[in-house]
């Protein structure tokens, strides 16, 4: 079966990691470092907006879970996509259920935009549906207030007869998708397209989008055999409901049990959330789930999605899940936090280097000779006192700013910051990354 | 009070400045226009073109510079070949111990100079700019006005110039700040003493800064650029007052004398003169007067610039001024066309005999998401357009910039996404691509000239640029061809915000418009003895 609908004219279907032929990252840099953002973004947006897919439906179908099935039943106009068709609730679902908030490279949270108009339509369609239903049972899977899932309605309540979707190579319970008001069967690709599982190839520094030159620096690190690796990780969703976390993990499980779908790669990193909900109930639940149900056989590491440091006990809990599992904490905001986590043996990302550079802070990491501990020395480049400073940030540092023969002075970096040049941030970021690199080497 | 302090933004605290400037203005009375005309009466009345030193002396490529025999110790100019009027030459700047330069720096022409207004090319690191072979421009620009405000002359003096401050190993050229007369006209008042600016920075509380020619040169001495520009009285080329143009022309000559006088580093820094005179190319007109003034001072001037253009005048006027100046200016000195940087303009003006160009267009338009490309008829690609959201190709398959990497680099769709989300990485990559494009263009032009095949080069370039070829109707003026490749780009970087919708404007313009060779291109090339209509339908 062809994957849903043909792409729009004059557009090329974006190759995705799980499609054949497999996606190959550009070769100009070592293959072990590739941007994650463009891939993630490029996959999601075109699929959802251009080809009429909505992201959530695909996951729902794929999971083949009960509640998801019913959702598919309701929103069955999958064939139409979210192109604004009457009564099509695709857009609604996209907005209400998915509303993905992605961690994008610069560490900002980006919310996918859905138009207000779409939202109104969805509300209307929701009302209509309610009116039209006879015994429609509404009720979300869990009663949590925040973006709750669409009212789950049994499939038979839809006006049109349910058309079973062909069950080609799909996980068993997927075959009940329907289309509202049309006889066009809901055609869904059975294989989850790559946009739910981003092949993330990155070095240990994490997967921030950092300027080219900085990448080149990282490439140099990798060439010297100092770490680096390639992992697959599902989207880092900002999940604040138990259900959503469950979805992702179940999805992992299905894949694990299935031995991987055609062309799919096994995820080797999975996200865990430290701040799911106040009170920590969700966290406990997540850990329990990972301990008891989730298939961690092919999982190499856990990525803590948190901008603040996590407690050592939490790290211990994560480590106890599987022998030799790695824990990463790439989204920290300050270098001190990162240092603290690194001392616990947790992998840190480039997040703090980028975040600090955005604030105009360059830092040096210095090892105290007496007790062997790392100390942070900060330079605030906004400080006018640096105006005349001819010294480099750190002698012997190999970053774009300090290395021979450039040796950019602090005075110059201050000038760049003051005049708001992007170059300033590039140099600053490069320096911070090189400092983190020292850390990696020593730990 | 020392006037040099007035340029420093941070030191502008004394109320005495105001009273001081009024004294200064009194010291520089504007001479009556009749007195100005007197020395040039002969030229104004005569009907012959001002010309001097038209005999070309060629040296082979690779000749070592000899600064002792050069008329100016700070520059050795070697003309290698001419193809028609197009010239291939090399500028050599001497070693300078003060900035740790041990060997001479050579600048092959024709050359495009990327603009680094405030001491850096926006979004590029110098490390990358120097080490990546496809970029590596031998000379870049800085702006005196902006550098005087930030970091200020005291910092530059303390560091020993901009070369040391920004660790730029190549050559540097600084604009005098004269262009800010046009771009910041609302804030500027021009008198005989100099230009009085209102500080564009709100926090300075509208303090006035007087930029005198002496001041401009002193600042440029602090910056230490290899080529300095005189402070000229720039009038916007679309200004419609002949008197103002005339006043500006004579003032430019007077200011040149003051600039030459105040240059304290003649051994290392060249001072280029700038031809002004509006769009008056008639015999005995203002441009002629200006050229005659320069002819009389020729021994003090190592190179010439053509100024007052690229300010919104029509292309018909533009090429005529360039052509006239190139016909008059001496053959054995470099010629620099200020503020021009569209690829097509470069090709045409090189045919007319220009050597050096600068413009913010390639770098600025890159940051707005427009890539310069060869293999696509409009010559530009708006990567932000939805057209490219799913395009997996690189910008250009044969470009070896850090962005395209000969077709293995960043795809258009990735750039599209990054530009949409405002990633600095996208700005960096696009800038790198556009600089690489311009450097490739000038290198190709030089190669063609050295081989004596510039005419063929122009032909093939124009053919690619205008796929619909040549139309009689366009020449008769019955159909006006809109050159929709470029929006007007002001030279001023600090007005960047207001031009952010550049890409949007370009999008609004019609796509299906036929692209015939514009009339001005045909005429300008025929003035350069290239009949472009031959062989093109």
From TrEMBL, chain A:
Region described as Disordered: spans on this chain: 67-89, 114-169
Comp. bias (Pro residues): 148-164
Pfam families to which the protein is assigned, alphabetical: TGT
Gly residues bias (residue ranges): 74-89
Sequence ranges assigned to domain tRNA-guanine(15) transglycosylase-like in this UniProt record: 326-439
One example of a Gene Ontology biological process annotation: tRNA modification
InterPro entries per UniProt: Queuine_tRNA-ribosyltrfase (IPR050852), TGT-like_sf (IPR036511), tRNA_ribo_trans-like (IPR002616)
Domain of life from the UniProt record: Eukaryota
PANTHER family recorded: QUEUINE TRNA-RIBOSYLTRANSFERASE ACCESSORY SUBUNIT 2
Entry protein name: tRNA-guanine(15) transglycosylase-like domain-containing protein
Organism name: Triparma columacea
TrEMBL record, chain B:
Transferase is among the record's keywords: yes
Residue ranges of the region described as Disordered: 485-510
Primary location: cytoplasm
Location of the active site: 175 (proton acceptor), 358 (nucleophile)
Start and end residues of each stretch annotated as RNA binding: 339-345, 363-367
Enzyme Commission designation: 2.4.2.64
Alphabetized UniProt keyword annotations: Cytoplasm, Glycosyltransferase, Metal-binding, Transferase, tRNA processing, Zinc
Record's GO cellular component terms: cytosol
Subunit organization: Heterodimer of a catalytic subunit and an accessory subunit.
Protein's recorded name: Queuine tRNA-ribosyltransferase catalytic subunit 1
Organism this protein belongs to: Triparma columacea
